Amino acid sequence: KQEVTQIPAALSVPEGENLVLNCSFTDSAIYNLQWFRQDPGKGLTSLLLIQSSQREQTSGRLNASLDKSSGRSTLYIAASQPGDSATYLCAVTRGAGGTSYGKLTFGQGTILTVHP
Amino acid sequence: SQTIHQWPATLVQPVGSPLSLECTVEGTSNPNLYWYRQAAGRGLQLLFYSVGIGQISSEVPQNLSASRPQDRQFILSSKKLLLSDSGFYLCAWSPIWMGTEAFFGQGTRLTVV
């Protein structure tokens, strides 16, 4: 059974700092890994999608890496801003091949607070 | 562009009452559709997924059911709500081909009292 763990559970940093969020998964037979952002009481916003064959993806100040063999991914946020405050979730698509149907297994999330 | 709509945004229901949450997707056809639940202090858990009209798969045994009467419509239901059904329910969709992103609705906060 796939298990996804995110460390740290919560993180508080001053504005401007670069930071790293960690995600690990127990079964390396994933199809892809996705990072999401969730604001309080809201749905999930997709940030980055990394295919299992890729090593990293970048979008603006965000960079996500994937090491499938070791079961790890990191989300790097550069020059953090108060508007980055949210819960960040990573999720892996279960299994490999057509039978996974895009079903996601989520970590518990990292609550990020960026203070001015 | 594709959009996903989910309603209502909040719902307070008494124990034993029925439930119907609706989700629709626009701008795409034959999507995979999903219902997830986020309970307090717990991560997101997949409840149901559907790969086509009338095709529903359940991931966990529970008091809920799902239906897909139309290609882009996904409904979550219960005949009699339990206190343990309280939570934040999220509908999501992804294209049928593998390796693509999943997109989520804004969620429904359900409180069973």
Unreliable runs of chain A: none
Q: What is the H/E order of chain A?
A: EEEEEEEEEEE
- State the end-to-end CA separation of chain A: 41 Å
State the order of secondary-structure elements of chain B, H for helix, E for strand.
EEEEEEEEEEE
Computed Rg of chain A: 14 Å
Based on secondary structure, the structural category of chain B is mainly beta
Secondary structure tally, helices of chain B: 0
Show the largest interface. A-B, 28 and 28 residues
Mean pLDDT across residues of chain B:
93
What class do helices, strands and sheet pairing of chain A give? mainly beta
- What summary fits the major beta sheet of chain A? 6 strands, mixed
What does this entry look like structurally?
The complex is a heterodimer of chains A (116) and B (113). With 116 residues, chain A is mainly beta. Chain A is built from no helices and 11 strands. In chain A, strands 2, 4, 5, 9, 10 and 11 form a 6-stranded mixed beta sheet that branches. In chain A, strands 1-3-8-7-6 form a 5-stranded antiparallel beta sheet, with no helix packed on it. Chain B is mainly β and 113 residues long. In chain B, the strands form 2 sheets. In chain B, strands 2, 4, 5, 6, 9, 10 and 11 form a 7-stranded mixed beta sheet that branches. In chain B, strands 1-3-8-7 form a 4-stranded antiparallel beta sheet, with no helix packed on it. The mean pLDDT of chain B is 93. The interface between A and B is medium-sized, with 28 and 28 residues.
